[in-house]
Design a protein that fits this description.
By secondary structure, this protein is an alpha/beta fold. Helix content is 29%, strand content 20%. The protein has one domain: TIM Barrel, CATH 3.20.20. The strands form four sheets. It has a seven-stranded mixed sheet. Bound molecules: zinc ion.
């Protein structure tokens, strides 16, 4: 700590800075919270510094998190959510508006901001406004007032904007304000009572199937509406969140090729876990494919290592077969996906200690997101530079200039960075998680990538070891 209250540190490691398009061994010097010097090292000075060791990354951006305040503070508060975010390496989070009451009015945004300010956390809190009043899907929210108050987009997450007419109007209004509609694509008429992705695993387990078409059909519909709206409102933007199926990703890939202003994200769990985890498998998604790229049979492989029906795996959209997870990773590599977003969804034990199909949907994932992505990087599934871009500059670009995020290792500016030991593993446990939500299937498991230091706006957001 220096005289002016900012942090002082000298850190050697492997810097990855997508904003500058550069990675390599560096010595970074932070003085008074400002990134004063970044010396790129070569020769013997760089010995021992590499992409599998200590990493220095721009602060991560999570464009999809649920902190449950107001209304369900037993599951998470803004304070515990921010502590969890910092521990996970995130220096900016965008919160979903499905609180109680919903964030459909500037007064709720003011309340969330006051809670964030009271924590003293340097992690930046952004928020979406609801698309429809009360998230009821009947009439639009006070979108203009919410835009004036500073929301970074609009979403009815937890549900899709079911009415095509409302989606059309929402895209037009939000587009006029330069903000995206962030849609959770799900045709609810196909998913009533659905428990697990429709297919072999759900059939063997006797769980009601959740069809791929429920997501892909909704994606296609919204893209078709966007194509109409954008002719009149060139600023209209559609972001499809937590895509989980090859079919959805194919729709987005085609829409992007056609020049439509559509973006999407993938969660860590949909790229790394599969539906066979519900049966008790715990192998990574890339380990569950055969030589032809088809999902292996976890029963035939003897891959079941945990009890079945772990309700921490109940999530919306559901975990998918390994082929779909592979399509998600292909989307990350080829630019079809713009971001990795956690969909951090903490729940109380009470909401998860029920039969699988009755459990609340969601995984508490903001603290394990970077580790899960680094596991994929270590397996050669996503290049490190691309993975870091998907967690920093990618989501910042989707949110757009009004969010004011500029992730990067910028000289002379307050340091906003994360130091992580990629080769060190840490044990995920209820006690080790800062989130109130302990609902993660990674409990009891050692995962790679221990976050050592997080600086946000020049201040220490998290430090350990
Ligand atoms: Zn959602």
């Amino acid at each position: 700590m220096s005289a002016n209250g900012g942090h002082d540190a000298t850190i050697c490691g492997w810097a990855v800075d997508p904003a500058a398009g550069r990675e390599g061994a560096v010595e970074a010097v932070v003085r008074g919270g400002v990134l004063e010097r970044l010396t790129w090292l070569s020769g013997s000075a760089a010995d021992g510094l590499g992409p599998t060791g200590r990493l220095i990354l721009p602060g991560l951006v999570d464009m999809h998190a649920h902190f449950r305040e107001p209304g369900n503070e037993d599951a998470e508060t803004v304070a515990t959510g921010l502590a969890a975010a910092a521990r996970g390496g995130f220096t900016a989070v965008a919160l979903m508006p499905n609180t109680t009451p919903a964030l459909d009015d500037p007064s709720v945004l003011a309340r969330v901001r006051a809670s964030a300010a009271a924590t003293g956390s340097p992690v930046r809190v952004l928020a979406y406004g609801a698309v429809t009043a009360g998230r009821k899907g009947e009439t639009l929210s006070a979108m203009g007032e919410l835009a004036d108050a500073g929301v970074v987009g609009f979403s009815d997450d937890g549900a899709s904007v079911g009415s095509a007419t409302l989606m059309r109007n929402a895209l037009a209004y939000a587009g006029a304000f330069g903000l995206p509609i962030v849609d959770h694509p799900e045709d609810a008429t196909q998913t009533a009572g659905a428990e697990a992705s429709e297919g072999y695993v759900a059939t063997v387990l006797g769980l009601r199937g959740w069809p791929v078409a429920a997501e892909a059909g909704s994606v296609a519909r919204s893209i078709a509406i966007l194509a109409d709206v954008v002719r009149d409102v060139p600023g209209a933007r559609l972001h499809l969140t937590h895509l989980s199926t090859a079919a959805s990703i194919a729709h987005v890939r085609a829409a992007k090729a056609a020049g439509l202003p559509v973006t999407c994200d993938v969660t860590p769990h949909h790229l790394a876990f599969t539906d066979e985890w519900v049966a008790g498998s715990r192998r990574w998604a890339w380990e569950a494919l055969d030589a032809e790229g088809r999902a292996r049979d976890p029963w035939a492989d003897g891959a079941l290592a945990a009890p079945p029906f772990d309700t921490s795996l109940r999530v919306n959209p559901p975990l998918r077969p390994a082929e779909d997870a592979a399509a998600c990773r292909a989307a990350l590599r080829d630019g079809t996906a713009d971001a990795i977003a956690t969909d951090h969804a903490p729940h109380t034990a009470v909401d998860k200690h029920v039969e699988f199909g009755w459990a609340a949907n969601g995984i508490s994932g903001i603290e394990t997101a970077l580790s899960t992505v680094l596991a994929a990087v270590a397996a050669g599934e996503v290049p490190l530079m691309r993975a870091v871009a998907l967690l920093t500059s990618g989501p910042a670009a989707v949110l757009g200039p009004r969010a004011g995020l500029r992730p990067g290792l910028r000289l002379g500016e307050p340091a906003d960075l994360v130091v992580v030991d990629a080769d060190a593993s840490w044990a995920v446990s209820a006690a080790s998680l800062r989130s109130k939500g302990k609902n993660t299937p990674l409990l009891g498991r050692a995962v790679p990538g221990a976050v050592r230091l997080v600086l946000a706006g020049g201040r220490v957001a998290h430090a350990e070891g």
